[in-house]
Backbone:
């Protein structure tokens, strides 16, 4: 499953970085970067939590 | 007659909408009723003072209507709860066209949120408004075109965001705040003043240390008189002076409320259970206990998300996963600057300015040498990277050069 971010909706709150730092990163200009883009069992819980916490519902996985 | 097993949620805001999702994804297949006073499907409030007010967004719905159909939710909007009878296990509701009904519940969840405070001097005057609901935002947006001047009363989060949005739409905006700095209660004066710079740099006039004595104009507001005698012209007056939990419908129900001194609202335990079995509360209206048993009522977006997850698990009797300590978070967007707070900033804490370029900044808060919070403006990466340091006591000296 692919992890996807809607960069139009993303506002760089960065809760995803807190929930899944192995997957999401904010650079010095507060732009979000995906470090990993495929769901694997070891990161699945963290990515689900990141998606739940995102105030903009900008993270999805599937397809 | 068989007892109802329906889960009835009173309140169709973020809490109600999230709980629907958490219950269904938790495996609940039974009857689910979601009742909302407003005549809108559940929507998100943060955009109301920003993109909805400026006109960039026409709506802020949390989910499309199909979500409620797909999840088999009996969604009743424009319907207000007027009474709860925990013995008969009923919620009395009244629809906007006056139809009264008693709904039976197996489990009841209260998520009725807050009502914005107004001022007696404002009563009945056109052009004076609070901003809590989508309808408030749309009405205020409609006033902007014919207006030149605006006075915002209160420099809390709502006041500051509304001021920024109205200024961005070309109005001359003055914010009036009795404390010595904006956000003084949330962030303390020093950091509050740093946030104030963002508003002032973009043209907002900030009048601190002064209050509102009156609103001039007969049927329509024409200005605001301050306690120091100054008269400010105002085509629009917005009150951002706080809000109170919506609990009027609980009178006579036996559902206990928390002391005002602890934040008020509906008294709950660590997972949202109220004083009455099978009745829960979450969100802005609910006063929860933390792991130490300390009661507090929090009005932050992320706290609702955490609570919804806990309530769903409690209702469905699913074990809590090994908890990663949740670090409280809130944010505010003023113009294009995102102010963020992680942890528990207190106005009495010691403040350490780590970086500051005159607009963007990062500040650590500490108490007795231990880091209590990180607050930043326009520095999301720097703020979020410290989340781990707030999950357990960290000496602030470890983090300072």
Residues:
């Amino acid at each position: 499953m692919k992890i996807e971010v809607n960069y139009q909706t993303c506002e760089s709150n960065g809760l995803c970085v807190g929930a899944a730092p192995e997957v999401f990163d904010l650079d010095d200009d507060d732009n979000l970067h995906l470090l990993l883009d495929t769901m694997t069992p070891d990161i699945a819980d963290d990515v689900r939590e990141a998606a739940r916490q995102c105030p903009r519902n900008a993270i999805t996985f599937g397809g | 007659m068989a007892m109802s097993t329906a889960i009835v949620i009173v309140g169709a805001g973020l809490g109600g909408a999230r709980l629907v999702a958490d219950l269904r994804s938790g495996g609940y297949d039974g009857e689910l009723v979601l009742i909302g006073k407003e005549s809108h499907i559940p929507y998100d409030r943060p955009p109301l003072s920003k993109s909805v007010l400026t006109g960039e967004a026409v709506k802020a719905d949390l989910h499309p209507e199909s979500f409620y159909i797909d999840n088999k939710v009996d969604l009743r909007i424009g319907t207000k709860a007027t009474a709860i009878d925990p013995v008969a296990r009923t919620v009395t509701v009244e629809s906007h066209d006056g139809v009264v009904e008693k709904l039976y519940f197996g489990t009841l969840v209260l998520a009725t949120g807050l009502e914005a405070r107004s001022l007696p001097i404002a009563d009945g005057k056109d052009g004076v408004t609070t901003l809590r609901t989508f309808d408030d935002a749309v009405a205020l947006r409609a006033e902007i075109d014919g207006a030149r001047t605006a006075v915002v009363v209160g420099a809390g989060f709502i006041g500051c965001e509304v001021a920024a949005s109205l200024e961005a739409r070309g109005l001359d905006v003055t914010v009036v705040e009795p404390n010595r700095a904006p956000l003084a209660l949330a962030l303390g004066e020093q950091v509050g003043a740093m946030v104030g710079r963002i508003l002032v740099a973009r043209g907002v006039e900030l009048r601190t240390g002064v209050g509102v004595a009156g609103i001039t104009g007969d049927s329509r507001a024409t200005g605001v008189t301050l306690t120091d005698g100054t008269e400010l012209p105002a085509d629009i007056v917005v009150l951002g002076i706080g809000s109170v939990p919506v609990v009027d419908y609980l009178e006579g129900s036996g559902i206990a409320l928390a002391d005002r001194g602890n934040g008020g609202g509906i008294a709950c335990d660590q997972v949202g259970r109220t004083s009455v079995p099978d009745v829960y509360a979450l969100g802005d209206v609910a006063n929860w206990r933390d792991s130490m048993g300390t009661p507090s009522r929090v009005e932050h977006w992320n706290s609702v998300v955490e609570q919804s997850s806990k309530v769903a698990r409690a209702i469905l009797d699913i074990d809590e996963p090994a908890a990663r300590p949740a670090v409280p978070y809130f944010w505010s967007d003023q113009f294009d600057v995102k102010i963020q707070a992680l942890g528990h900033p207190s106005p009495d804490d010691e403040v350490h300015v780590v970086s500051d370029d005159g607009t963007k900044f990062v500040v650590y808060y500490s108490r007795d040498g231990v880091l209590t919070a990180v607050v930043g403006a326009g520095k999301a990466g720097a703020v979020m990277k410290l989340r781990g340091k707030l999950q357990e006591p960290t000496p602030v000296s470890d983090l300072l050069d």
